[in-house]
Design brief:
This protein has 135 residues and is mostly helical. It is built from four helices and two strands, in the order ααβαβα. Strands 1-2 form a two-stranded antiparallel sheet.
């Protein structure tokens, strides 16, 4: 296996999937944090970004790589690598925010975000080992 094949194997779909996971988890964190911030707002309807559903839908679309601006006259990319999940946000059936439920969602989302980060770290460690072994 040559160096190019090693790099291609290490940067397979895993990196793209982890990136999507992190983007969705970060967006979900913002949505849930908004619920917590509005816990005492009369008539506020809590929102959620259902991770599994959004992640599965993201797999159906094309994989998008962030664009690099290589010339000062290039037009800027939209949101530079960010994805808009606003159409995926679901509203609760009734007004009100259960703070305990929202804090539990935040904790679970944070735990899963950290797990995604750990998988990314492991992937880079494998790359580092491969590079060192080819020297």
């Amino acid at each position: 296996m040559n160096k190019f094949q090693i790099g291609k194997t290490l940067f397979d779909k895993t990196m793209s999937l982890v990136q999507r996971s992190l983007d969705i988890r970060a967006a979900r964190h913002q949505v849930i944090s908004g619920n917590v911030a509005n816990v005492e707002t009369p008539g506020y309807v809590s929102k959620d970004l259902p991770f599994q559903k959004v992640f599965e839908r993201s797999l159906e679309g094309p994989s998008v790589l962030p664009l690099k601006k290589t010339h000062p006259h290039h037009l800027p990319a939209l949101e530079e690598g960010r994805t808009d999940f606003s159409r995926e946000i679901e509203m609760a059936p009734a007004p009100g925010v259960d703070i305990d439920q929202q804090m539990a969602k935040l904790a679970e989302n944070n735990l899963m975000f950290q797990a995604s980060i750990q998988s990314l770290i492991k992937k880079f460690e494998a790359l580092k080992v491969s590079v060192n072994e080819t020297r």
